Amino acid sequence: MSADERFLAHQSQLPAASKPLGLYIPALVVDNMAYLSGHGPVMPDGKLVTGRVGDVITQEQAYQAARQTALVMLASLRSAVGSLDRVDRLVKLLGMVYCTSDFLQQPAVINGCSEVMKEVFGEAHGVGARSAIGVAALPGGMSVEIEAIFRLKN
């Protein structure tokens, strides 16, 4: 299966395309690089997964929110480049987790996104550099926000 086919297998989990919540471009292509702005966990019904991890939602719920965020990100990327088969590799992910100050499992939460990238692009092309940090707040109270950089095929 191609990356596009693996992504489309998740189509029932995708929300309708949404507009940016501010003055930015969701996915910007410059030369052979694609830069994705921060994306959040928008569900198929358009609702955002919100709540502070360690207080309102569990680590598992945040992990699932990160998986959903990955699908939203890939939808934006696909819209920008036409097909995920154009992606050579994931270069970098930055994951931010809205959490209590004593919650220390941000990497385990962002693994939800990383695992989707690996499922779609394979281990050799879907696993890149990554940072996972905890933050005091995110826009709209969303539980996770993730941005990414991809290299495209020439």
Please give a structural write-up.
By secondary structure, the protein is α+β, with helices and mostly antiparallel strands. The protein has one domain (3-10, 25-152): RutC-like (60s Ribosomal Protein L30, Chain: A, 2-Layer Sandwich), CATH 3.30.1330. It is built from four helices and five strands, in the order αββαβααββ. The protein has helices at residues 3-8, 59-81, 106-121, 123-126, and strands at 27-30, 33-39, 87-98, 129-135, 144-152. Strands 1-2-5-3-4 form a five-stranded mixed β-sheet. Strand 1 and strand 2 form a beta hairpin. 39% of the residues are buried.
CATH H-level homologous superfamily name:
RutC-like
* Oligomer status: single chain
Provide the CATH architecture. 2-Layer Sandwich
- Gyration radius, in Å: 14 Å
What share of residues is helical?
25-40%
Structural class, by secondary structure, is alpha+beta
**Major pleated sheet:** 5 strands, mixed
| Overall geometric form | globular
Q: H/E series, N to C? A: HEEHEHHEE
Count of DSSP-assigned helices = 4
Strand fraction equals: 25-35%
Uncertain parts:
none
Distance between the termini: 21 Å
What is the CATH level 1 assignment?
A: Alpha Beta
Q: Please name the CATH topology.
A: 60s Ribosomal Protein L30, Chain: A
Number of strands: 5
Strands of the widest sheet, in order across it, are 1-2-5-3-4
What count of domains describes the coordinates?
Answer: 1
How much is the average pLDDT? Answer: 95
